[in-house]
């Protein structure tokens, strides 16, 4: 009996040690990331510099494979200097980075491979280089639901193209855009490292420049405590400008990533504008800080890859190694963003003022390469010339090309914008590849959108461009500031000069978002009995008609319909709720009179006619 008692303490010790051993074996908790939030992974690699003889951008390739039970992504990484270059300005270090945006909840694994070899960055992924061992090359993490809310894109996911419109890929919600097309040289910002104007310009047919680049000082007060900045308070003017546009309900901003030889001569991603193989790591890190903020504010990145004057600068327009490297770097550093569309280039193709240009084969090669290296299938659009025959000479040869998602349309005469847009939507649909078309630049080149002080209600823009193109199938609009304006396409510092235009744009966007299944609708303007009006409809469901002022009785041809339809009015100058009119409902089967809005103002109106249950 004594021996049994003596064994009890020993038995307890054994049990305690066993429990400790089992506790030590328990798996560590996985790092959690949120769905649609960027996962940034850093790896320690060779110590090098932007200027190293063994070029870190061209002769190294970081590839990371991310695997989920339902999906796999292969994502290119990039050289990140010291890993904090946006803040430190560093051009050297041993950090190699990848950015990835997971679209699935649950467990993900990753495997990273860093290789070195002559020009391996632009060689096929199947072609191997010399492997370089990196710490932490394999790992696991868990993805949980996002805690964000709109307008932050992380609340909804990635924007793709569907039925000629933008749509969030996962939940299927459609999205329509409105925003700023000027200045095209948005990134010519004095607070970005290595940014300056190579030379000023006073060329005819474009905005004039001096030695000054953007500061965006008028928007410094729009920066808010807690917003991003860098290097002891830099960046606040541009961040404040993005805050202002978002506060007006805008959701897209247009910008060039390279304008060497172009109008501004002040934007490029390179360390030196004469060397296309080396990139400015700290500048690009600062671009990324701005892009992150834009996405959180619900602003799509309209990334324009080149300017008409430099489209043959790399390999005479071919998609050779230098162009491939340029695209690879942009994709690796910024392709993770959820709301991003690539534009092949401003005014791509030949015209009388730019006869040396890319050809059809070169445009298609660019498009194919972008699609090939993009893990996320971002939209790829082509920016057009403003007039005929230059526009059709380019588009006739590429319409139907399966890898081009649509057009960034430019039109010189605003009265014709709706018709031109509808024509190309119809042509693309007949070709078997329906294009998404956005109305992104309205002429004339010297005028465009003028300040509120000149045209307070922007009557012709509101009528012919905003409502005219949206009711003809446009997926959105952007506003261009003409070269003869005080604030133009190169020197805009203050978007408040068109404060009213942003409001009018937002009213139109809200009407489409709240009242129309626009992705299922078609234009048929002759259904309303009024000249120069617009009609957009889905048979059996809804009709929307834009009625230009002065106000008059309007008719709608419902001869192909049956049943009863309600009638409401929307004020495009004030927005807000739908209003009742003198006619509350109509019986289909004939052409019906829609009456008048309850408040008869000498202005344009929008009438909404919906089938009643």
Tell me the total number of β-strands. 30
Task: Decide which structural class fits the backbone.
Answer: alpha/beta
Shape by Cα distribution? globular
Number of helices: 10
- Give me the side-by-side strand order of the main sheet: 21-20-19-18-17-14-13-22
Low-confidence stretches: 1-23
What is the radius of gyration? 28 Å
Write a structural description.
With 613 residues, this protein is an alpha/beta fold. The chain is built from ten helices and 30 strands. It has helices spanning 2-25, 85-88, 236-247, 281-296, 321-334, 360-373, 390-398, 417-431, 459-470, 499-515; strands at residues 31-34, 39-49, 60-67, 72-76, 78-79, 92-100, 106-116, 130-132, 138-144, 159-162, 165-168, 174-175, 177-180, 252-256, 270-272, 275-279, 300-304, 340-343, 380-383, 406-411, 436-442, 476-479, 522-523, 534-538, 542-547, 554-557, 564-570, 585-587, 591-595, 605-611. The strands form seven sheets. Strands 21-20-19-18-17-14-13-22 form an eight-stranded parallel sheet. Strands 1, 3, 4, 7, 8 and 9 form a six-stranded mixed sheet that branches. Strand 3 and strand 4 form a beta hairpin. Helix 8 runs parallel beside helix 9 (459-470). The N and C termini lie far apart (89 Å). Mean pLDDT is 94; it is low at 1-23.
């Amino acid at each position: 009996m004594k021996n049994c008692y003596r064994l009890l303490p020993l038995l307890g010790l054994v049990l305690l040690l066993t429990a400790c051993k089992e506790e030590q074996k328990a798996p560590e908790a996985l790092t959690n990331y949120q769905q649609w939030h960027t996962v940034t992974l850093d790896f320690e690699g060779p110590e090098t510099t932007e200027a190293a003889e063994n070029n870190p951008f061209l002769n190294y390739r970081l590839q990371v494979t991310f695997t989920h039970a339902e999906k796999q992504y292969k994502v290119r990484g990039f050289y990140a200097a010291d890993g904090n270059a946006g803040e430190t300005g560093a051009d050297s270090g041993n950090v190699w980075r990848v950015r990835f945006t997971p679209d699935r909840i649950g467990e993900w694994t990753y495997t990273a491979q860093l290789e070195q070899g002559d020009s391996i960055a632009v060689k096929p992924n199947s072609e191997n280089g010399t492997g370089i061992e990196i710490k932490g090359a394999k790992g696991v993490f868990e993805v949980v639901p996002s805690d964000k809310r709109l307008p932050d894109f992380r609340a909804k996911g990635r924007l793709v193209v569907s039925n000629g419109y933008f749509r969030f890929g996962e939940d299927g919600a459609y999205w329509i855009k409105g925003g700023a097309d000027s200045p095209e040289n948005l990134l010519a910002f004095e607070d970005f490292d290595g940014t300056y104007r190579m030379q000023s310009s006073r060329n005819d047919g474009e905005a004039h420049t001096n030695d000054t680049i953007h500061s965006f000082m008028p928007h410094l007060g729009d920066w808010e405590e807690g917003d991003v900045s860098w290097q002891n308070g830099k960046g606040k003017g541009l961040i404040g400008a993005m805050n202002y546009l978002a506060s007006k309900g805008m959701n897209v901003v247009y910008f060039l990533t390279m304008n060497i030889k172009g109008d501004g001569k002040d934007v490029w991603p390179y360390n030196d504008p004469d060397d296309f193989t080396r990139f400015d790591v700290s500048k690009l890190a600062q671009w990324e800080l701005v892009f992150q903020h834009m996405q959180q504010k619900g602003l799509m990145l309209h990334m324009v890859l080149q300017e008409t004057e430099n489209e043959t600068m790399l390999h005479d327009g071919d998609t050779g190694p230098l162009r491939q490297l340029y695209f690879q770097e942009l994709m690796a550093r910024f392709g993770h963003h959820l709301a991003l569309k690539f534009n092949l280039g401003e005014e791509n193709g030949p015209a009388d003022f730019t006869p040396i240009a890319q050809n059809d084969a070169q445009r298609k090669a660019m498009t194919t390469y972008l699609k090939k290296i993009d893990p996320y299938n971002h939209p790829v659009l082509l920016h057009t010339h403003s007039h005929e025959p230059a526009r059709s000479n380019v588009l006739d040869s590429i319409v139907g090309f399966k890898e081009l998602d649509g057009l960034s349309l430019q039109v010189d005469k605003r009265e014709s914008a709706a018709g031109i847009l509808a024509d190309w939507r119809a042509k693309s649909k007949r070709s078997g590849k329906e294009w998404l078309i956005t109305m992104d630049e309205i002429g004339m080149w010297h005028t465009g959108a003028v300040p509120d002080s000149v045209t307070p209600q922007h009557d012709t823009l509101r009528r012919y461009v905003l409502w005219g193109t949206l009711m003809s199938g446009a997926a959105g609009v952007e506003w261009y500031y003409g070269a003869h304006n005080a604030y133009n396409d190169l020197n805009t510092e203050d978007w408040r000069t068109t404060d009213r235009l942003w409001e009018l744009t937002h009213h139109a966007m809200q009407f489409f978002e709240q009242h129309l299944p626009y992705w299922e609708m078609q234009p048929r303007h002759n259904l309303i009995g009024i000249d120069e009006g617009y009609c957009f409809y889905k048979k059996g469901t809804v009709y929307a008609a834009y009625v230009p002022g002065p106000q008059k009785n309007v008719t709608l041809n419902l001869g192909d319909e049956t049943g009863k339809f309600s009638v409401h009015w929307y004020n495009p100058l004030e927005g807000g709720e739908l209003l009742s009119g003198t006619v509350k409902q109509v019986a289909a089967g004939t052409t019906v009179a829609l009456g008048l809005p309850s408040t008869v103002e000498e202005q344009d109106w929008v009438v909404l006619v919906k089938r009643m249950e």
